[in-house]
Write a structure and sequence with these properties.
alpha+beta; 9 strands; 39% helix; 37% strand; elongated
Length: 181
C-alpha cells in the first residue's frame, strides 16, 4: 500500500515538471521576431485608417476623436507586446503625442514646426500622452530619442503616425508609418 502512494507522488511530480517545462517554453517562444514587427506595423496602418474613417463618418468632434484614438492605442499596446511605441494623432490644429516604453524610462524630444522642442519623460511600462493645441497645417513634427529620429508632416484632416521599436537578439528594429484622413 505504501509503494502505491509513492508511485502517485512520483507521477504527480513528473506531471508538474512537464507542465512547468511547457509553460517555460511557451513563455520564451512569445518573444517577437522581426517579421512580426513589420506585420504589426502593417496591421496598425490598416486598423488606424479604419478607425479614422469611422470617427470621420460619425462626425466625431476633436474630443470624441481623441478619446477613440487613445482607447485604440492603449488596447494596441496591450495586444502588440512591442517594447517602445510613439504616436502622433489628431487634426491640423490639435495633435496628441503618445509614448510607451516597456523596459526603460526615456526622454523624448518633440519639435513641432518652428517652435522650440518640448521634452517629454516617458516612464517605464506606462503610456503617457501630451496634447499640443493651436497648431496649423503643413508643419513638420519631429520625434527624437537617444537612438531614434523620425519626422512626419502634419496635414489637414485627421492624422495618425506611429513609430514601433523592438530589440530582438541584440538587433534594433524600427517600423514607422501612418495615414491621414
Amino acid at each position: 500500500m505504501n509503494n502505491r502512494g509513492q508511485m502517485y507522488l512520483i507521477a504527480s511530480v513528473i506531471i508538474i515538471s512537464l507542465v512547468a517545462a511547457l509553460l517555460t517554453v511557451s513563455n520564451y517562444s512569445k518573444k517577437i521576431n522581426p517579421i512580426e514587427i513589420y506585420k504589426l506595423g502593417e496591421e496598425l496602418e490598416i486598423e488606424s485608417a479604419s478607425l479614422l474613417e469611422y470617427g470621420t463618418a460619425q462626425n466625431f468632434d476633436n474630443t470624441e476623436m481623441h478619446d477613440l484614438m487613445s482607447l485604440f492605442i492603449e488596447e494596441y499596446i496591450d495586444y502588440s507586446d512591442i517594447e517602445r511605441l510613439y504616436f502622433i494623432f489628431g487634426n491640423e490644429t490639435d495633435i496628441t503625442f503618445g509614448g510607451y516604453h516597456e523596459f526603460i524610462e526615456e526622454e523624448v524630444s518633440l519639435k513641432i514646426g518652428d517652435a522650440a522642442p518640448v521634452t517629454i519623460d516617458i516612464p517605464q511600462d506606462d503610456y503617457i500622452e501630451a496634447d499640443f493645441p493651436g497648431l496649423s497645417a503643413n508643419q513638420k513634427v519631429k520625434i527624437n530619442t537617444s537612438d531614434l529620429n523620425y519626422e512626419f508632416e502634419l496635414r489637414e484632416g485627421e492624422n495618425f503616425y506611429f513609430v514601433l521599436s523592438q530589440e530582438v537578439d541584440q538587433e534594433h528594429y524600427v517600423v514607422s508609418g501612418g495615414n491621414k484622413d
